[in-house]
Amino acid sequence: MSKQETDTTLDPTRWRTLFVVAISQLMLILDSSIMNIAIPSAKVDLGISDANQQWIITAYTLAFGSLLLLGGRIGDFMGRKKIFIIGLLGFAGASALGGIASTQGLLFASRALQGVFGALLAPAALAIISVTFTVPKERAKAFGVFGAISGGGAAIGLIVGGVLTEYTSWRWCLGVNTPIAILAAILAAKFVHESKAAGDKKYDIPGVVTATAGLFALTYGFNEAAREGWTDSLTLTFFAAAVVLLVAFVVIESKVASPLMPLRVITERNRGGSYLGSLIVGAGLFSMFLFLGLYLQVILGYTPLHSGFAFLPFSVGIIIFAGVASQLLPKIGPKPLMVPGLIFAGIGLLMLTRITPETGYVTHVLPSLLIMSSGMALVFIPLTSTSLHGVSGRDTGVASAMVNTSQQIGGSLGVALLNTIAATATTAYAATHTELGKMVQPFAVTHGFTSAFKVSAALLFAGAIVLFFFINIGKESLVETEGAGAH
To answer: Considering the chain, what percentage of its residues have pLDDT values greater than 70?
Structure first.
């Protein structure tokens, strides 16, 4: 073990560093769901049309998803602590701007700006954990905290969004980020240690342009597919552009001396399998929050706040089982946790296919949430660890960015695919069950949701198969590669 690793291991501020990173990660995860609850109020306040309401979410995800790889590289080269703090302060400013937005254009612009700074912040946060924790048991605990926040934060965001919207204003769903981000930046300046990649620090400009434009085209294409359908000319144009740009990106990365995303990062089977698994999980799990939230509010008549609290058992389950996963990971390795975890989560989703407008929360929703959360907690923590398996210090930031990029693209793909499936199933059911009279609409809509849940469950089972065949590291490999990122 090198002197630097020893120093880092003995560093008394490392748990404070984790606390700071945890705050920033929670803020980012909350922001992905907190605005969902606030959309109806913001629409009324700023006169936003139904056609444009999607931009409250999409402006953020487009900027975030398409700039993550660049954000990871900037952190590696300029210093992860420096970029982490810049990301926090920028996120604080963008959130404040959104909170006082007087027009829809300003709100959309502020959400895009949040995405830009989030793309700097997210890879730096994960890279900081990777280089700070070099002892296997401690690293497993650190990833356990990070995984619990990543898994449970979205449900907490729905609750916080419900409380703020109901008792203050939708504007506080954005404004609440500002003091949190500033506090995190102050703590980061004190407790986070600087780390950079060694060696050549040239930026791969052709790679930046093709990757950013390609990811933007792909994310926008999925968004258009959800709105206008898969055969819409604009959807197909963006998908075609994405294919051309991303193929060009891979060719460029194989040729240039200092690539934005070195192919060695994704061609190692454990990391490549982790990113593919992460993409599938993002696509499969997104439907649970989207369609179950709609079921609770539209079909069962829950208020936004009530609906947010209905997801609380999911967060609690994630947090409890994240602790279990972080204890077991150094003892048994990642695969024995991840594969059964995804199978469990898939079973939980299949249980949700039994809901109807006449079933209750306690009997049909709660058991599914508990089973899904226990399964997903066993996936999130090891998946974060295997995503960074054996990566060199030079590539820690970009490998971290790939974790978020794969989840982001998976989520975009998921919403487009599953929205289309749900809408088609709803229409078909309504046409063939006219005998239900007034009740045909709620039954048809719920049938659409359950059809999406079936496909989501199939995606999670497919993810389990991918991870079973790709992941071949055991607990001893996790020990051997600890500190690989400490440069």
So the answer is: 94
Q: Is residue 63 part of a domain?
A: yes
With vertex at residue 336, the alpha carbon angle to CA 330 and CA 342, rounded to the nearest 5 degrees, is 120
Determine the distance from the C-alpha atom of residue 366 to the mean position of all C-alpha atoms in its chain, rounded to a whole number: 23
CA distance linking residue 25 with residue 124, whole number of Å: 10
308 located within any domain: yes
Answer yes or no: is 238 within a domain.
no
Single-letter code of the amino acid located at 226: A
| Cα separation, 345 vs 430, whole angstroms | 30
| Chain centroid to CA 233 | 29
The CATH number of the domain holding residue 78 is 1.20.1250.20
Task: Please state the domain count of the chain.
Answer: 1
Cα(225)–Cα(369) distance, rounded to whole angstroms? 29
Residue 417's pLDDT band, with cuts at 50, 70 and 90, is confident
Which tens digit of pLDDT belongs to each residue from 272-328? 999 999 999 888 887 788 788 889 888 998 887 888 888 889 888 888 888 888 888
Identify the domain containing residue 139 by its residue range.
Answer: 13-203+260-480
Q: Which residue's entry shows tokens 């799990």? A: 285
Spatial distance between the Cα atoms of 395 and 118, rounded to a whole number of angstroms: 19
Which DSSP letter does residue 391 get?
Answer: -
DSSP 284-317: HHHHHHHHHHHIIIIIS---HHHHHHHTHHHHHH
Asked whether residue 213 is domain-assigned, the answer is no
Pair 183, 238: CB distance under 8 Å = no
Q: Tell the burial category of 255 from Cβ atoms under 10 Å away from its Cβ (0-12, 13-18, 19+).
A: exposed
Tally of CA atoms within 13 A in the half-sphere of 459 that contains its CB: 27
Residue 104 neighbours by CB under 8 Å, 6+ apart = 46, 47, 48, 52, 55
